[in-house]
Amino acid sequence: MSVVLRAQGLGKRYRRRWALSDCTLEVPAGRVVGLVGPNGAGKSTLLGLAAGLLTPTSGTIEVCGERPAAGSAQLAKVGFVAQDTPTYARLTVAEHLKLGSRLSPGWDMRLATERVRRLGLPPDQRAGNLSGGQRAQLALTLALAKRPRLLILDEPVAALDPLARNEFLRELGDATADREISVVHSSHLVSDVERVCDHLIVLVGSRVRIAGDVRELLAAHHLISAPHFDPAGLPPGVHAVSADRTGRGTTLLVRADGPIDGHGWTVAPVGLEELVLAYMSGSTPVLEGQR
């Protein structure tokens, strides 16, 4: 498997506080990866390190096989859209595109101008006068027109209304469908991850709890219910992730190495949100072979 981002024992400290510590993960190339985790998990710090905006305190990180921000050629390989979708308030849309062409050696002006036209962004409009959704689309245009190998999105739709968020995600899906580009999309909204991502990483306390292809992860996990059940009595190859006990019995979310029928349980499929919440709330380690 080709890897576009690799971190090993990665950490970032601000004075006495560690924003990220001992983080080890791999991001596969050519995938749209959803990065999910609670507040304080270190997602934004990790993405800032990957974009070269921050310098590690400990450990190592490689992006496209090199140290982030190692030079202009390396910077050109990464497109980054932060949560506040930064643009220059006094510059017009057209001036943003012109600036991008000067700063990015691989700039695709045809792609940029076509996106601006199709999205209805007025070329003579200053960014400060655009709506939040329009600024987000402009920031995405600037990142895509670099023709990066890795596109990093740090919750760029968090503050948008549902209509603007829907439009942004649709455009993201269209923009990445036919291009050789890897994407890491950090989001608190599992529905957004489910819509555009085909690979999942759950980060909790700087550590990867689970990672892998979304379809394979969902196929390997199940909800099993029984009136009276002890999680310690699971057969080999079936591992409990979370348990919910009520007066009517016990429901377990489990991952299994193979079929789990024939044990007298009631078996149901798992949704992505159920899967994510189970790993965010527990201490289950990363699945072997799916880092």
List the topology elements.
Elements: E1 3-14, E2 17-28, E3 32-36, H1 43-50, E4 58-63, H2 72-75, E5 78-81, H3 93-103, H4 109-119, H5 132-145, E6 150-154, H6 162-177, E7 182-186, H7 190-196, E8 199-204, E9 207-213, H8 214-220, E10 221-226, E11 238-246, E12 249-256, E13 266-269, H9 272-281
Parallel strand pairs: 3-7, 3-8, 5-6, 6-7
Antiparallel strand pairs: 1-2, 1-4, 8-9, 10-12, 10-13, 11-12
Helix pairs in contact: 3-4, 4-5, 5-6
Keywords: ATP-binding, Nucleotide-binding, Transport
Protein name: ABC transporter ATP-binding protein
Pfam family, one: ABC_tran
Walkthrough of the structure:
The protein is an alpha/beta fold and 291 residues long. It has 2 domains: 3-205, P-loop containing nucleotide triphosphate hydrolases (Rossmann fold, 3-Layer(aba) Sandwich); 216-281, no CATH class. The protein has 9 helices and 13 strands. Strands 5-6-7-3-8-9 form a 6-stranded mixed sheet, with helices on both faces. The chain has a 4-stranded antiparallel sheet with strand order 11-12-10-13. A hairpin with a 2-residue loop joins strand 8 (199-204) and strand 9. Helix 3 packs antiparallel against helix 4 (109-119) and helix 5 (132-145) packs parallel to helix 6 (162-177). The longest helix is centred in the middle third of the chain and has 16 residues, at 162-177. The model is unreliable at 283-291 (pLDDT under 50).
